[in-house]
Each structure stands twice: as C-alpha cells, then as structure tokens.
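Risk register update: the risk of archive-format incompatibility is retired. Evidence:
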Amino acid sequence: MKDSLPVPRDGRILVVGTTPDYVEWITRAWPGRALFLTDPDLRRRAEEPCPSTCEEILCPVDPDRINGIRKAIGVHLEQWGQAITGVACFDCESMEAAALVAAGLSLAYPSVEAVRNSRDKLRCKEIWQNSGVNCPRSTRVDSPDQVMEFMAGLAAMDDMTSMTGINEGIVLKPCLGSGSELVFCCTTDEECQRSFNILEQGLLQRSTIPLFGENAAQGSLIAAEELIQGTEFSCDFIVENNAVTIVRTTRKIKAAGTPFGTILGYQIPAPPMTYPGMAADGLEDLLLRGATALGIERGICMVDFIVKDGKPVLIEMTPRPGGDCLPFLLVESGNLDILGLTLDFAEKKPLILNGPGGFKPSMAVRIFTPGGGTLRRIDFSRLQLRSDVKKIHLMRKPGHRVTMPPGDYDSWFLGHVIVELPHDFQEHSIDEFCLGVSSLVRIEME
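Archived output:
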C-alpha cells in the first residue's frame, strides 16, 4: 500500500470588505482565486448573485472587531480546508481591517500606520510637507473663523515663499472621506461660512457610515487646504523594492456647474505631461518619495495629482487601485484587469503591464441625473448607434430614488460610457466631447 500524501489546502487570496459588484467581477473573471470577507449589510442589500458558501465569509469588517474577524476566518478555513495566500482590498474603509488581518497572518500588505497616514487627508499633508513632497498647504479647522483665518493667511504669504504660487482660494473637506463628497471650494468669507456649516452638518448626518464616522472617532474632522489650480490626473502605480512602476495615468475632466470636484470623465492615455527642470522619471521619483513618507513600502496605489506651473502637486494617495469607472476603462482600452492584477500582486506573482503606449485612446464619461426625484426611464439607444461607444455600464434601474448633493453624492450617478477617441481628437474640446456623449442619454425623472 502506498503512503497517503497530505491533501493540498485550497489556497485563496482574502479580499477584505469589497462591494458585491466587485465580488461578482472577481468570481466571474478569476474563479476559485478569492475568498471574500463581506459585511453582512452589504450582502443583504446586494442585487448581485451570492458567491458559493466556500467563497465568502459574512462578518462585520470593522477594525475594532478584529478578534471576531480573525475567529470567523479561522472557522471558515478549517471548515473548507483552505489557506490564505495573500490579502487584497479595494475599499478605503476596509483597508485598516485588511492591514490587521495581513499582519496577523504574516502576509504582505501595507501596515496599519501606512493606511492611517494615507486615509487621513490632514495627516497625509503634514507628513508630505515635513518630507519636502509637493502638496497643498493645509490645517485642521474647527470653526468658520478658523477657515477664514487660514485663507487670509495664505493670501498674505509672500508669493516667493509659496511652493505653488499665488493663492486662489481654499478647499474644505472631511479629513476622512472619498471622492468629491462634502468637498467645497471657497474664495470668499461668505463661502467659508456656508461651506463649513454644510460640511459639519453633512458629517453629523453620516456619523453611522463607516467611511465618515471615523472622523469623529479619531477626533479629526475637517481639513482646509490650499486650492491648486491646474490640470488634474489620476494614476495607479506599484511601489516595491524601493522603486515605482506606473500602471496607468488618466486625465480627470471636471464638470462645470456641478458640486466642486465632480468628475465628468477620465481620459486615457493622459495627454503628455512635461515638467521643466525635472528628469524624465521625475514623476516616479515624486511618487516614491510620497509613498515612502507615508510608510507604504509595497503596494498597488492610487494617487491624484495636479500639474501647476509645470510641476506635479500631490493631492491624495492611498494603497489601493483606483475604482469608480476606471477598472472598466482599463479593460476596454487596454485589456488590463486591475482587479486581477491586484490579486496577482497579493500573491507576489509576476505582473504583466501594458506600459505607457498600451492603451487605445479612450474616455470614460460619467452619467448623472439632471435633478432629484425618482428615476422613471433611462434610454441609451442614441448612444448605441455610435460606433465609437465600446461599453455602456448602467448602475441604476427605474424606480431608483435620487437625492442631489450635498445630501447624497452617490444616488445621482447612474453609470458610465466608454468611448474610443478619434485619432484627430483635439485636447481643447475635451469638455465638449464629454458633454456631447452624455447629452445623448435620455433621462426621465418624476
């Protein structure tokens, strides 16, 4: 009789706290590779199909309940004969829990301190400023008077000592948050007063939402920072072995006449960026210094930066890939699945990247409702007649209730359209191009 061999354990990457749409994406595109740690409330509200029982652990993804998380993981692994081979996370509010889980399993993932440094917008700016990394000047503010004092102080500073030139206003935002939610631009004392009051009330209303509730829990609420005027970009990059590799760079197109920071679309590849006085790899050097200062030694990171007066100024950086419509844009323009790439990175597998020229000129145009109410009908038929439209992704159905910002920044976003750009595309017409695409969508509200 032959000696019996041990049964190999089923190795899986633990994906911490991601949303059901990403769960469905990963189970469809990368079957058998992931084990999902999902908040029960998210699963209860999900319209997407549930993964099999062996693929998902339902448990509150709260770093303050890490012992319960570890116990739930241990029970599942024992029951299904599985082992965790890596840890990945795609959502800001779940990264701290992911860091704690990874540390307990001795698996590679950014540290809890690095996650906290990147998530707290005020702490991030303070660290960068102390490390000589280009970023907006910022401070914590607890009243409208402090906001106005900060703005007046910036205006009074000698332009020669200002890294970014003449001050043109300030931005108010939650120290912990995401995207353009509760972010305001102020150029007058009246706007400072009004925006602070709206932001303060908005945070109070969101106190039960993990992404925003942490503001009060950590005693860090509202940040005021210098307004940087220029062309804004979004970038995914890999930091590893004290070096940076850029995965993709996209230009962000802002929507006029909408809440400050609202993004109408993303363009890939980004138009050429030149920085006088900087070496060809100057952006990579800046990203490495920014990540190192935050304590990120290894990770797939997302960064937003603005080019002003020929120099990049870092706005935000976090150790996760960019979300929203960006994963869809990368698939359609370059056949690059950033979710699958993140899984490979978690398991330390060799990565195949597109390189700067590996993306067809394309744009993701985001679609918004014209106002609040109930979505009665959305018609993409006119868009479907265009040969340059490669993908239409609709997130909402008739009956969807819309509350406009600042009450809700998510419900008025309906989906996006991926469009291939013509070879003779003119950069100066980018806003008109996006508006032309979105105008072809018929939206009826009641």
